[in-house]
Amino acid sequence: MNIPEATKPAVWGAIGGAIVAMVIGFAWGGWVTGGTARQMQASGAETAIVQAFTPLCVAKAEQEPEQIALLKEERRYQRDNFVVEAGWVDSVSEKYRSDVADACADTIVEGME
Question: Could you list the residue ranges that cross the membrane (predicted)?
Fold first, then answer.
């Protein structure tokens, strides 16, 4: 099979152009791999769940003002456990319960200050 000499530069140009396009696309164009896209999707879903359930947790907490005072006395790293034990996040899946409890505790304490 004879390939004309004029074809070689065109083939190398197409290969080089494809490489340059990929470098530019991944570096500045916002392209991501499938794995990164799945990670971004999971992170976005978790954030949405936390944002959706935090107001419900705060509403449950407001029904027990004596517990809110006790929550403020807890150390920051123990507040999420306090919220879980108080039952304010029982409607949340076990997978997201700790994150929602942490956000709920932060919201309650910030609201008191």
Answer: 12-31
Q: Are 76 and 61 in contact (CB under 8 A)?
A: no
Average pLDDT for runs of 10 along the chain of length 113: 83 95 94 94 93 94 89 89 92 91 92 75
- Cβ count near 30 (within 10 Å): 7
For 113, residues 6+ apart whose C-beta sits below 8 A from its C-beta are: none
Given the structure tokens 């999707």, which residue do they identify? 41
At 22 the pLDDT is 96
108 touches 71 (CB < 8 A) = yes
